[in-house]
Design a protein that fits this description.
alpha+beta; 6-stranded mixed beta sheet; 36% strand; elongated; Ig_V-set; Ig-like domain-containing protein; Ig-like_dom_sf; Ig_sub2
């Protein structure tokens, strides 16, 4: 009788089954991190998420305003290279890092575990306008470290074609990160998740440094302007992009050369006249 009572008690103990097997614990969030995070425009933000007992399940981060999956496991699913996941093995931390935070990044982000039903934890990111705060100090750059955009300083593309800009930096970032190079169109950071779509970035690390390639498909007239490649540890480089609506760039360049030639001819004539006047005296 006593033996039967002991067996019955063991069968109801937490984590132990009557057959001697340990019950698998369900995943949950270790809610010890702040649910509200504040940062300043241009700085980095880290949204913390600690997921316990996930087993073979996957932790993902989703941006609530557009339901965009940003990361899943250790992989990034956005063309915006500012986003990355921090997961030091073998920890339970799955933190979302956002580099060079912009005002549009403010809002709710959800850390999710793909259980059935799915469980999630929301974190709110508050972004303070830099106009109300001291400007962040620019990173220290070596005088020899510089970015170079391949090709001419003026790039001509037809409307509807693809703008392709390649920027090479002769130093490595430290620590290595795909977000070590930012692209600006005018004064704004290029938004890879904008409703326009068709904008992507390819970053490659080599022994000689970093190469960043910006692709803008289906070029529109509004895509014209100044594009700047800004490394976080080197001097930037810029080019001017002209999206043509039927004009031919060769004709524009020929016109410019003709204008320069006429100007030089007039200058020579004026100089010749001046010399002849002095000789007559």
């Amino acid at each position: 009788m006593e033996l039967e009572f002991v067996i019955a008690c063991i069968g109801v103990l937490p984590g132990v089954s009557g057959g001697g097997e340990t019950r698998v614990e369900r995943p949950y969030f270790d809610d010890v991190s702040p649910r509200n995070v504040s940062t300043v425009v241009g700085q980095s933000a880290v949204l913390r998420c600690r997921a316990k007992h996930i087993g073979n399940r996957t932790v993902s981060w989703m941006r609530k305003r557009d339901l965009h999956i940003l990361t899943s496991h250790i992989f990034t699913y956005t063309g915006d290279a500012r986003f990355s996941v921090l997961h030091p093995e073998p920890s339970d931390d799955w933190d979302l890092k956002i580099d060079y935070v912009q005002p549009r990044d403010a809002g709710v982000y959800e850390c999710q575990i793909n259980t059935e039903p799915k469980i999630n934890m929301a974190v709110f990111l508050h972004v303070e306008d830099e106009s109300h705060n001291p400007a962040p100090q620019p990173p220290v750059r070596s005088s020899a470290a510089a970015a170079t955009i391949w090709g001419s300083q003026d790039v001509y593309v037809k409307k509807g074609s693809t703008i392709s800009l390649t920027c090479s930096v002769n130093v490595h970032s430290s620590p290595p990160s795909s977000a070590s190079v930012l692209w600006y169109h005018g004064n704004a950071v290029v938004d890879f998740d904008s409703p326009r779509g068709g904008i992507s970035l390819e970053t490659e690390k080599t022994e000689g440094g970093t190469t960043s390639k910006l692709l803008v498909t289906k070029a529109a007239l509004t895509d014209s302007g100044n594009y700047t490649c800004v490394p976080n540890n080197a001097h930037p480089a810029s080019v001017s992009v002209h999206v043509l609506n039927g004009e031919h760039p060769a004709a524009m360049q020929t016109s410019n050369r003709a204008s320069s030639y006429l100007t030089s001819q007039l200058s020579c004539a004026a100089f010749t006249y001046l010399l002849s006047s002095m000789a007559c005296r």
